[in-house]
Design brief:
single chain; alpha/beta; 2 domains; about 45% helix
Amino acid sequence: MDSNLLVMKKLNRSILELDHKRPIKVLQFGKGNFLRGFADWIIDILNEKTIFNGNVQIIESTDNGLAKKLNDQEGLYHVLLEGLQNGMKIQETRLVTCVNGIFNPKDDYKTFLKMGKNPDLQIIISNTTEAGIRFDPNDTDVNQLPRSFPGRLTALLYYRFLHCKNINSHKIFVLPCELIDSNGDALKDIVLQYIQLWKLPERFKGWIDTNIEFCNTLVDRIVTGFPKDTSKETQKQLDFEDHMIVTAEPFYLWVIEGPKEIQDIFPTEQAGLNVKFVNDLSKYKTRKVRILNAAHTTMVPFAYLSGFRTVKEAIEDKKIGDFINNVIYQEIIPTLDLPKEELTSFADSVTERFKNPFVKHHLISIALNSISKFKVRVLPSLLKYHNQTQKLPQNLVKSLAYLILFYRGKEKDGQMIPIQENHEILNFFSDVWQNNTVEKVVEIILENKELWGIDLNKIPNLKNSIFKEINAYNNTRD
């Protein structure tokens, strides 16, 4: 062990005189940085500022050594917030005390199932990655530990159904945080598939419909995890030996689509938390995708081909900064249906987040699968702007031109760009760029419906505008 850590206090509940008596109200599938720096951080604030009074039991699916570290610290760890907020540099720490510990169902399947009997259980949270919400047909026996998260959830709920007839008076709210569309609906659909696969009673399906509320959610916070480069200094400042520190940006948002009654058991509004309960989160999803995600996608090719390598240095350059501001405020926001004030406020937070001095966000990592990202995040705004005004949005057109240039695969000086993309798409762009004039390159790429869903050559003046942008780039000296 590092000698600098020997003199520091070890994290445990006895030395901090923390209360062990809070009931476990939350079961959490996933022990990763995101949930610990987001959901558990929120729950910890609820305990402090409201009568929520509940702890979290984490269920792990993969054994990578983190469980032992956190359990050795009796569930305690610090969240370090670093970033900009309202123009001010923020560095705050919070000791999270709401986590009871981590349990692996592989160690004892029966003990895991018995967690379903808990009469205090009110909320189930998950973040098992996008691949985690899936149906595994090989999970054929409810009496054996399922491999998939939805299978394990179904088994746990079935155990509750069988053994807890007397605690049906309150609902359990399932809040999946996986980044897929309609994540709550998707998870429930798979649970119903397991009920059918395992030939469980029809009454259980009815019990699910009555007692378990699967909510669609939208989450937003950059959580960078353990501060490897500054961990010794951070622990020294904390005066605690903490191997589970989580670093995150100050901004966060949790949108939950569900019935009003969830607010009674999860009183985030009383704590002043940025958690929104809505009847339909689609507009919030559109806002995030079209502003935050689209700003990233439009920025990458233009900034990278202009010589920048991180978001922060790009956004602080006047040319790139003006470009992104024009994209967001002049061309994207006018195409969205939410109140302008709300959109502008969100956009302001986005541009501030891009300038976070504590996060080194590399453009090339954001560039992963940029073609499909452009189609989903950016193209709808370009098309809607054109439909509304009968004009082309100049900056969004520039972003498409630079995306085509980016997929040429090399900069003007011949330096290769390490693009991460589907091989078929890479081969398509390579072939087009090698065998055609620039004008023909633009035409062939725009007409590819597999890339864009439509033939973009049909949009008046788009081909010519992109051709001019590419020529301007090629003819500009570095």
